[in-house]
Amino acid sequence: MNARVDRALAGNVGAIVACTLLAVALVPTLGSDYVIAFGFQFVTWIALALSWSLFSGNSGYASFGHGVFFGIGTYATAAVLRHSDAPFVVALVAAGLSAAVLAVVVGLAVFSSPRFAGDLFGLITLAMAFIVITVVSNLAFLDGGTGVFVREQAVGSWIGSSTGHLFIVGTLIAAGTALVGLVAASSRWGAALRSIRDDEAVAESLGVPTYRYKVWTFAASAGLAGLAGAPQAIFLGYVEVGAVFTLNIPLLVIMMTILGGITRWWGPLVGAASVVVVRELLLDIGSPELSQIILGAVFVLVIALLPHGISGSIPNLLRRKAPATGGVHR
Question: Going along the chain, which residue ranges are E strands?
Answer without folding.
Answer: 148-149, 238-239
